[in-house]
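Exam revision sheet. Question 4 asks you to relate a sequence to its structure. Input first:
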Amino acid sequence: MLVPSIDLQDGRIVQLVQGRDLALASDDVDGWLARFARYRRLQLIDLDAAMGRGGNDALVRRICAARPCRVGGGIRSVARAGEVLAHGAEAVIVGTALFGPAGVNHAAARAFARALTPSRLIVAIDSRGGRVVVKGWAESTALDAPAAARALEPYCEEFLFTWVDGEGLMGGIDMEAVARVREATSRRLTVAGGIRSHAEVEALDRLGVDAVVGMAIYTGTMRLGEGEP
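Answer key, structure tokens:
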């Protein structure tokens, strides 16, 4: 299944290359929501919150009121997760808070799972250079993505695996990396990172994996509805 991505920065919908360089920006929130009307789920990421530069709560509430959304970006406490759910999110995406110097922070993972229930917690595993990265992809851990998935599986019903190496580049996702994470967990798996074609989305679907797509949609490289059931 294709899951369109909406990334927010400075009150606009944006797309960044490698999480840093602005590639495009749009103020046409209603227009994009109309284009995404046929999709059952949207992924909404507040990049300002993720980078510790404020947030876009009013816009998050507006988008969540219009469409079913899973929301991430800077959710590093149970209290903040509760606020985002109160904004109308169906589930929250949590990454950095679940990792520490020793690897997985099991105490934090248990706290999120108890407070939210596993069905409303999506664990984000972001990987660059074969290692899980945190804090807006600025710091590496000693874990690889499959190990992180195995360790965190008891606390959630879904993982979001982002192959950061390809994020925003539209060079295609690393299917072998995806397959390794798929083999490591029985939980629902959604992936992101360079996906550029409906053929890739279909290949991921055959693995039992959903596909988050951003840059390819916004640039018109992938036409919505084309080749989809």
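Marking note for examiners. DSSP finds nine helices and 14 strands in the chain.
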